[in-house]
Amino acid sequence: MCLGIPMQVVSVLSEHVAHCQGMGQQKNIDMNLVGEQPVGTWVLTFLDAAREVISEDEAKHISDALRAVDLAMNSDGAGIDNLFADIIERGPQLPPHLQAQLEQEQKNKES
Fold this sequence. Notes:
Elements: E1 5-12, E2 17-22, E3 25-30, E4 42-46, E5 49-54, H1 56-74, H2 80-83, H3 96-110
Antiparallel strand pairs: 1-2, 1-4, 2-3, 4-5
C-alpha cells in the first residue's frame, strides 16, 4: 500500500529535486511531475516523488487523517475525533451532481 505524505518544500536543490519536510520526516523529493516549486509550497508525495501541489489546508487534513489511522492502529483510538473537527458534527454529504439528481427525483415525485 502506498500512502501520500504531505511535505513542504524547505529548499530547492536543483530543477528536479527539493528538500522537503513533513510528518516528522525530511527527504529529498523528486519534483519532475510537478515542476520546480518555491520554498514553502506543499506537495503530496508518494515514494519520494511529488505527485501534486496542494494547499496548506489540504496538507493539514491529510496529515490529520494519517495521524488518525496511526492512532486507530496503535492505540485505543482516543483523540481521533479532534483530528476530524471539520467533519465530526456534520452528516454525510452527496456530491453536487448526485444532490441535484436527488432533488430532481423528489420534485418528480411531488408532481
